[in-house]
Every structure is written in C-alpha cells, then in structure tokens.
Amino acid sequence: MLDYLLNQKVKNTYSATFFGVSAGESKASLVQRLKAVKSIGLNRVIAGYGSDNMEAARFDDRCFAALDELVKACRELKMTFWLQDYSPFPTGSADGAFQDPENARLNKLFVDERHIDISGPIENAVIRIDALQNVVYGKAAHRFAKVDPACRKRIGIVAYRMQENPDSAASPILEDDTAVLLDACAAGGFLKWTVPDGHWRVFVIFETYESAGRPYFMNLLSQESVELEIKKVHEPVYEHLKDELGKTWNGFFYDEPEIGNAGNANVFDFFMLPGKRSKDLTDCNVYPWSPEMPAQMEKRDQDWVKKLPTLWYDAGLQQGSFRRSYMDAVTALVRDNYNGQVYAFCRDRGIHYIGHVLEEENSHARLGCGPGHYFRQQYHQDEAGIDVIAGQILPGRDKSVSWYGVVNSDGEFNHFGLAKLASSEARINPVKRNRSACETFAMYGQQGLAERKFVIDHLLVNGVNRMLFGELSSDNATSEYAKVLVDYTDRICGLLRNSTPVIKTAVLYHAEAEWTAGDQAQYFQKPGAKLARRQISYEVIPADVFSFPEMYDTQIKDGLSVNGNAYEALIIPACSSLPESVAEFVEYSAKCGYPVFFVDRMPAGICCQDKKDSKVCLTSLEDLTQKVGEVIQTDIKVISPRQEWIRYAHVQSDQADLYLIHNEAPHGISDCEIILNAESEVLAIDPVSGIVMVPAQESAQNGQIRISIQLGQYEMKYLYLVKDQNIQQMESLSDYSPVRIGAEIEHDEEWEVELPDGRIIFNEAGSLPDLEALLGYDFYGKLIYRTTMTCTDKLPRLLDLGAVSDCCEVILNGKEIGKRIASPYLFDIKGLARKGENALTFVVYTSAANIKNDRSIFGIPLDCLTALPYSLVEPMGIRGPVRWLFEQDA
Which neighbouring-strand residues pair with 400? Predict the structure, then answer.
C-alpha cells in the first residue's frame, strides 16, 4: 500500500486517453502525437478510427493500414491501445452491414400497436383489421421514408373494455380482467366480433422495423443481429491485430450501444419506460423486440399476448407485474445476446473488453438510449464501466443541477449513484475482480487541474479504479503539471485495485421497482445520499444476486455476502412490490435476525416485523442513518460543521488500513474530528508530494483514536493505519519519515507579483494583491510571486501556501522543490531553508477555465456544451494564508 502512496517502484499504469487515428497518417506523425500523450505519463490510449464528426468510416484495408502505423508507433514508444469497436459512434453499426438488403431482418425490431375504439353492444361488428394494422400516425409519418409499413408482422389482436379517461391521464385506463383474444375472429383482412356492452378498444399488435431511433444499428436483444456485429467488426480486427494482442493491442472499447426505440429529437429520452401513451397524447414510441422475445415472454407469463397493450396504456393492477416481466425478458436478452456474445468472443481469445452504456439521468434502468438494466448489461465484460460528461460531477452540485443534457438534472444520481454503479458491479461480479473504469472529462471543456482533481478524487473515493480521459487540458500549464495529475491518478487506482474495500451496507438496485410502479419507486441514490452524508459506506446490488446466486456467489447463511463481500445490513428503497427472490431473502432474514430496512414504504406481501428477533423494519428516509447506525459496526465517525460534505472510503491490505477522506464542500476548508478504530498512531499521507505527517490525535476509548485534521478546498487526505507494527517502521524510510509539527508562523514579508506583460505589483508585508481588480475575471496566464523569508535559530520543515488558484511551483533559494495542482499546496523544505535571508519564487497559473475557447462541435461553440457555464470562477493566484511549519523538538 505504501508503494502506491509514496511512489516506490510502482510500474503499472492504468489511465488512458482517447486518441484519433485517420487513414493515411504516417507513423512519424503518430509518434509525434503519441509522444505528447506519453510526456504526461500516459502509456495507453483508446484509439478511434475515423473522423471527428461522427461520419461513417469502414474497418477496411485503409483502416487496417492506419492501424498498422499505429502499432509501429506504439511499439516504438512502448505504448498500448484499446480500439474503439465503432466508427461512427455509437457501438453497433456492424461496419455498415445493417444497410445491406440481405441483413435487413437483423436490424432493430420493435413491437407496436394500432387500435380502434368501439361502443357496444354491436352484433357481429366487422373491422378492417389489416387496414388498421397499417395505420400511419402523422407525427411518425417521416419514418416511412426508411421502412415500409408492409414489414409489420402481427403478434395478436386483443380487446379491452375502457374506463373513463381520468383528468390525470392522456388516454383511457383499460379495465383489469376484460382482455379478450380475437385472433380466431380474423380472416381475409377482416375481424368479425360481437362487441359486448361498454366502451371497448380493439388492439392489433405487431412486430415492426419502424422507429424514430438511429437506423441501421444492431438489435441488442437478438443473437443473430449481434453475431453480425461480431462478424463485421470484432472478427476482422482480431484477425488483423492478433499477433499484437498483449503487446501493443489490449482489446476493444465499446461506447453507449442503445436499446434504441426512440430517436430524432428524443434520441436522448432519458425517461423511456412502458406506459408513455397513457401520459402523452402524441406519443408514438415503440418498444424493443426480437425473435427470441415470444419464448422469453411465455416463460414469464402464459397470457403475455393478452397483456401486451399494457406496455402503452395503464390497466390497473396487472400493468405493473406485466411491465416488469417484459423488462425482465428484454434485459435478460441484452445480457446474454449482446455483451454475453461479444465477451465470449473476446474471452476465448484473450482480448480485454471494456466500455460503458448511457447512465445519465437514471437511464441505466430504462429503454431508449439506455440499456434497460445496468448490472445485466455490464455482467459480461472485464471491467465495470461508466462515463462522466459535461459537468455532471462538480463541487457542491449534489442536488438538482443543470448540465448540457438536462435542464434540471438529478444531481443526487450524479454524485451518489453514478460512480457507485461501477464500483459495485466491479466488486459483486466475480468476472470483474474489483476492476472498474470511467470515461471522464468528456466535454468538460477548459477546466483547472484543481477542479479536475476534485472529479478524480470523487471517483476514487467512490471506488472507481481506472480513468479514461475523454480529453486532456490544452492550457499552457499542461505540459508541466498534467503529469502530476496522471501520476497521482495511476498510483491511487493501483492502490484501490490491489486492496480490499470495507463496505458496511448494501442498497437494492431500483430497476425492477421502477419497471413495476414508475415514478412511485424510489431511486437507490436517495438512501445512498443519506448514507454518504453520514459516512456510512454502501454498495448497490441488483435483485439478480438473489435470483442467480451462482452467478454472484451469493451466500446468506451468516447474513449476506456477495462474491465474498459481506454486508451488515440491506436497505431497500421505497417500492410497491419485491421480486420473488428478494422477498424470500427478506423472509429468511426475519427469521435469522439479519437487518433489512425498508425506506418509507413496506411493499405488498411483506409481514416480517411481528416475528421474534426480526430486524426487518420500516424506517423513514430521514431516520435511516440513525437506524442503520444502531445495527452496524461503524468504522469511522466524522464530527464537523460540514459533515454532510465529507466523503470517505476504507480499504485494507495485509499491512494496513487506509481511509480516504474527501472534502466535497462547494468551497473552502473543512475542519474535522475523525474517530477511527486504531491501536497505534495514525499517519496522514499526501501522495502527490510524498509528505507523511502525524496529525494531532489522542486516544479516545475502546480502542479508538480521535484525529484532528483540516481539509483544504476539494482536498483528499489519506489516513494510514499500520497493522500490528510500530510507527518507527515508517521512520526507517528516511525519505518519508513522518513529520510532527510543533509550531507554525504566518508569512508576513513583502510580496511582488510579476504579470505576463512584465508589470510588477508590490504589496506591503502580510498582504496579497487583489488580482481580479487588475486583470478581470477572465484572465488566464502565469503569475510570478517573489518574497523573502528570514530564518534565525530554527529552520522550518514545511511550507504551506494555503489556497491557490490552480497549478503552482515553488523555487527556494534557486532550487525547484515541487509542483502542485490542488490542495494541499504543501512543500517539504528540509535541508533547503538556511539561516538568514531565503529567496522564494512561486510560479502560479490561474484556472484554465479562464481561457477563451473558440472550438466548436457540430457547429456549436464547445463552451456551450461543457462544464464551463456550470462552474464557479475561481479566485486568482495565491490566496493564502502562507505558513511556515516547524517540527516538534526531539
């Protein structure tokens, strides 16, 4: 663990960045561009073949020639690459094969309905059922430029009696238990039926290739469709690069394949679930289908054809259970036929397979641009994947916020759910071996490295352990400082991959609950947010850990353990019903005394509270953390006025326990008292500088230690607890001997600041200049501070600059003593300060967010699509207080 914290002989690198490769580019050009990547510490790239404007580019001889040049360049520089399995975005075009007439039937397939309303009684009413089946809705007329309605293939004809149209609905509600199958009444294009008394809706339900979604992409539900994708993309690439596998070529990266039943203006409809026509008068969306779906539906509900209309229209009690059955079938096919097939191909050949789907705004559990069920789609791949885009994660934005995709975003999901999806899947799935990856900083735009480290630290403290940089900073300070961020990121990712997280609770994934009850279901991040704000660790587990225990190595004999990860309590967000396997576990828990907390609502059929010794109970969301805290063995307690902003992670190795403590407050420092279970002194380690300190601490009681720490703005502090060893072991590492601070003084000498235009600003002793008044808020550039410090008898050990705008370097008596990119701006000056006058120079950069960016994407100014408009303007330069820290006397 210390190797990663102190950068001792750490060889593995985990981070990568995206890197474009074009036909005809020479090896020399690729080497030049890759050298820029390597110069900041990145030895891996995610290579994408094609243009930047998402136009199609084929995996053909021109592509393979370009990849050959990339291989040569990587070989020369000892770098490696994953290859994007798409051109253009997103994954799934099968190199254009779905446009070929012979593959037309393998395109995305959907289920849709047309209907006629009739008031009975009518004896022997006759309906032109074929004509009804081919009805074109005006709002969807444009689809028929792509697909002829004659492609529609009938599944069934069903009639429902209707209730009156309630004020809150866009359409009538279908009456339970009135469904009638009418296929036997149809012949020769006509339906003859005696309509009973009442108002009836006759549905003709059919398969179709018509959709507003992206045309000519694979059907994630279809085995044959995915086989075509493998045949046209993965197989030829493998055959061409197989000799480089494990040398320069790592494997494949996929990106955001979609269920794809919505498109055009609604391509990013994050809220796509069954039942929309009951809510939207003009809804024309279809639902995913495949040739395998009838058999899958038959296994779940023998009356499935009669219930198909409830995919679009509300129907009382039966709609929820049927919609859950339908979604269960869809997502099981996505798991097995999409990633299951691609991963089998890759696994059998030793190809490393990673990537992610769309998770934004809870779409991870929905249709449209989503995958239907995050954990099912992700099961078959080497690392759990997510992405963070355009400012979704920013300091203090963990409630309702905006980013370019949504006017009022779910900030709770962004900050308490998104990273937890990846780290949880990495831990509970035996395939993953605690490996997760995040595509981060895509469309974040110009951003200071201090802000970027905040995002990285948020992901790290939530357990994500590989970073795939969507873009690199392009500011003037990057060549000097980006390597600091990359080096830090890699080492902590390595630490997390090679240690064991300590997680106290499990929160049930909400997918099945939302499929059943829509917006009445509570998202998993709601209790997750409460737990995080009170420093109770949690992971997210799907119902599948109970339904398929062999897939997850789920054990319930002594509580709840998933893939060897034991949880002290299970928390179930508010829901109307439970999957059968979860209900069985709850019943078992009530008998054996395992704690299960239902939040805000006890689902139907659960009656466990009256059992002797039962710890199954109902609690409000507000009381959740108190109730949970009473039954788990807490490993940390934080006392701070800003407790709600403090996040932590606890990881273990054979040698030590480590606590990652992150200040996620929107601004400023946070003073904290941390109580840990520890028998010996606790160390505070800053992996960026390598400085090891002994924070103020005292023994509490019952084997606990109380530590006093101060977290700078956005700072991550690492508290290190040596197991069964004396603190002197650390002192034996001469370069990293722990520093014990006995006194400090604030710097009160005069300052001068040199501006980029050569102007010099002088300030009196003890004060720093107000640069905004001189330069405005949008100034970007290098500022050079100079001052002196006179030492008499005792020499300082550390220099702390306090708050600084962004990147900073210190030069003491002509010697460079280190670069920093974020708080703590702490420098070890042992052996460098001298008695008498000491000359100090500070090279400081303002935040790169201040750079004016003229780039565009799709003709839109890039800054209109990035995190820039949602970020606060950071103060410029050194803000202090600047302090000299002195070691305790021996």
Answer: 410
Helices (H), 767-829: 771-775
The overall average pLDDT reported for the chain is: 92
Q: What are 40-88's pLDDT values in tens digits?
A: 999 999 999 986 556 778 999 999 999 999 999 999 999 999 999 999 8
Which stretches of 79-194 are DSSP H helices?
Answer: 129-133
- Output the CA torsion sign for 97, 102, 106, 110: positive
Contact 233, 58 (CB under 8 A): no
**What token pair was written down for 51?**
């243009």
Rounded Cα gap, residues 139 and 316, in angstroms: 28
Residue indicated by tokens 């050990």: 797
Give how far Cα 214 sits from Cα of 108, 317, 372, 434, 754, Å. 9, 34, 17, 34, 55
Which DSSP category does 757 fall into?
A: T
Q: pTM here?
A: 0.96
Q: How far apart are CA 270 and CA 827, in angstroms?
A: 46
- Per-state percent for the chain, helix, strand, coil, to nearest 5: 30, 30, 40
Closest CA to 189 of 131, 134, 149: 131
Structure tokens at 729: 């072991």
Distance CA 884, CA 412 (A): 40
Q: How does strand 16-21 pair with strand 44-49?
A: parallel
Pairing of the two strands 741-746 and 808-812: unpaired
Rg (CA), the chain: 30
Supply the pLDDT for residue 62: 95
Query: What is the dihedral angle through the alpha carbons of 459, 465, 469, 475, rounded to the nearest 10 degrees?
Result: 60
Q: What confidence score (pLDDT) does residue 648 get?
A: 98
Question: Which tokens belong to 205?
Answer: 């339900």
CB atoms within 10 A of CB 396: 14
CA distances from 1 to 187, 486, 724 (A): 74, 18, 15
Number of residues in the chain = 890
Q: Of 256, 266, 269, whose CA–CA distance to 442 is shortest?
A: 256
- Which residue is listed with tokens 């800054």? 863
Q: What is the 3-state secondary structure (H, E, C) of 424-490?
A: HHHHHCCCCCCCEEEEEEECCCCCCHHHHHHHHHHHHHCCCCCEEECCCCCCCCHHHHHHHHHHHHH
| Of 367, 360, 285, residue with least CA distance to 326 | 367
Residues 6+ away with beta carbon under 8 Å from 752: 760, 761, 762, 763, 785, 786, 787
**What does the pLDDT average to over 206-220?**
93
Q: Which residues contact 531 (CB under 8 A, 6 or more apart)?
A: 505, 507, 537, 538, 571, 624, 625, 628
Q: Is the dihedral of CA 326, 544, 381, 360 positive or negative?
A: positive
Q: Do 108 and 260 touch, CB atoms closer than 8 A?
A: yes
Distance between CA atoms of 543 and 327, rounded to whole angstroms?
Answer: 14
- The token duo for 330 is 């869809």
* Residues 535-568 pLDDT 10s: 999 999 999 999 999 999 999 998 999 999 999 9
Q: Would you tell me how many other CB atoms lie within 10 Å of the CB of residue 626?
A: 12
Going by C-alpha positions, the residue among 382, 380, 292 that lies closest to residue 340 is 380
Give the three-class secondary structure for 545: helix
Concatenated DSSP letters of 520-539: GSPPTHHHHHHHHHTT--EE
Amino acid found at 780: Y
**Whole-angstrom distance, CA of residue 544 vs CA of residue 581:** 8
Look up tokens 């009681």; give the residue: 701
Q: Which residue in the block uniquely carries the two structure tokens 């980006």? A: 482
Cα distance between the two ends of the chain: 28
Q: Which of 233, 225, 213 is nearest to 86 (CA)?
A: 233
* Residue 690: alpha-carbon gap to chain centroid: 29
The arithmetic mean of pLDDT across residues 104-121, rounded, is 96
**CA atoms of 401 and 411, how far apart (whole Å):** 6
